[in-house]
Amino acid sequence: MADSVSDSIVVNATPDEIMEVIADFDAYPQWQDEVKEVEILETDDDGWGTRVRFVITTKIATARYVLDYTYTDDAMRWTLVEGHNVKRNDGEYRLVDNGDGTTEVHYDLTLESPIKVPGVVKRQLEKRVINTALGALKKRVESS
Length: 144
Prior knowledge:
The chain has 144 residues and is an alpha+beta fold. It is built from three helices and seven strands, in the order E-H-H-E-E-E-E-E-E-H. It has helices at 15-22, 28-31, 119-143, and strands at residues 3-11, 35-43, 49-57, 62-72, 75-84, 88-97, 103-112. Strands 1-7-6-5-4-3-2 form a seven-stranded antiparallel beta sheet.
């Protein structure tokens, strides 16, 4: 069964500045501790990654997977193409311009692993995912 997590955070930056960080896959290992390797396999006409391979190491396992990405003016979405230790990984970042130099960043993720994990561990992992997806993103963007 897939688990979904959602949250949001306000970042002191424009949507364009945030999009530049979340679309810079090569830099993910610098601000996402679990990301060990990234390889951009395909790009669109603007040079943005549309198919990206990741190697992630958590306390439970190492996962290898490929995601397809699509972009709009205010969002980046992804879907799982193939994976080892991952059955589903679909999500998005949605960016809402607050008009005052800040942006509300919404993060939604649906994740499914073939590895059975106790509920308490699952909740810790979900908290870590949200902390990285939003907290580490905010820190990265605001320190740039």
